[in-house]
Amino acid sequence: MPYTYKYPRPALTVDAIIFKKEHNESRVLLIQRDQPPFEGQWALPGGFVDMDETLDRAIQRELLEETGLANIYLEQFRTFGDLNRDPRGRTVSVVFYGFAETAAHAVAGDDARNVDWFPLPSLPQLAFDHNLVITKAIEYLHDKLI
């Protein structure tokens, strides 16, 4: 029988920021959510970490399930854990970033209604705190994105 704790625990998620250059412009991959919360809104690909997987395996799985993309080298960027970042409850997200080839073609799957590459200067309002997450990544990777 698994051990249960007396105190509540936060949920753990992973998110992927995937960049690519297209027409001499940096773009980021977003999914349109097909499920609540934030149904119909754009967000980073990602999701909950399963009990039997590593963070690296979780982000590769989520990226494949939601976008069809595989074999993208991802680096762990930062952890985001502000209170109230997810209306479902206390959630901490480990964010990864990577760069796709210009020809990379993403296809919506799993709980993604749609998927698209957005130019960095014209991102839509995003679900959760993903506008902040992308802003922090752009600041960190500025020289690689220009």
Short structural description:
The chain has helices spanning 55-67, 130-145; strands at 11-22, 25-33, 42-43, 46-48, 74-80, 91-99, 112-119.
Largest sheet, strands/sense/barrel: 7 strands, mixed
Total strands: 7
Kindly name the structural category: alpha+beta
What is the CATH class name?
Alpha Beta
Can you tell me the CATH superfamily?
Answer: Nucleoside Triphosphate Pyrophosphohydrolase
Radius of gyration: 15 Å
Overall number of structural domains = 1
Q: What is the CATH architecture annotation?
A: Alpha-Beta Complex
The SSE string, one letter per element, is EEEEHEEEH
Detailed description of the structure:
With 146 residues, this protein is α+β, with helices and mostly antiparallel strands. Strands 1, 2, 3, 4, 5, 6 and 7 form a 7-stranded mixed sheet that branches. The chain has helices at residues 55-67, 130-145; strands at 11-22, 25-33, 42-43, 46-48, 74-80, 91-99, 112-119. It has 2 helices and 7 strands, in the order ββββαβββα. The protein has a single domain (11-145), classed as Alpha-Beta Complex (Nucleoside Triphosphate Pyrophosphohydrolase).
Supply the key terms.
146 residues; alpha+beta; Nucleoside Triphosphate Pyrophosphohydrolase; 7-stranded mixed sheet; 20% helix; globular
